[in-house]
Amino acid sequence: MVESMDDLALTERKFLHDISNQLVVAQGMGNIALKKFKESEADAPVDQKAIERLEKSVKAIDKMIVLVKERRHVLHSLV
Q: Which of 3, 46, 52, 57 allows an S-S link to 7, with CB 3.0 to 4.6 Å?
């Protein structure tokens, strides 16, 4: 089945939209969890390695969001 460029662009836009939504949810939940971990250190020490891993995870999500935005920009410039 051969799709037109418009169909391919619409499919790509839907994919970028769907993955972007999931990344934003993951980013928000990761930031909330990280904030809670850092706040709870005063009450009960949290494994610093766990905090570092969560920070690394949130940073990776932030980078993916930038990549999706860049890809979206490329797609918009083609159509």
A: 3
Closest listed residue to residue 61, CA positions, set 41, 36, 32, 39: 32
Q: What is the rounded distance in angstroms from the CA atom of residue 43 to the CA atom of residue 49?
A: 18
Provide the domain limits for residue 17. Answer: 5-78
Could you tell me the pTM of the whole model?
A: 0.75
Number of independent structural domains in the chain: 1
Q: How many CB atoms lie within 10 A of CB 23?
A: 16
- The answer to whether the beta carbons of residues 9 and 75 sit under 8 Å apart is yes
Kindly report, residue by residue over 30-42, the tens digit of the pLDDT. 999 888 888 886 7
Tokens at 64, concatenated: 């993916």
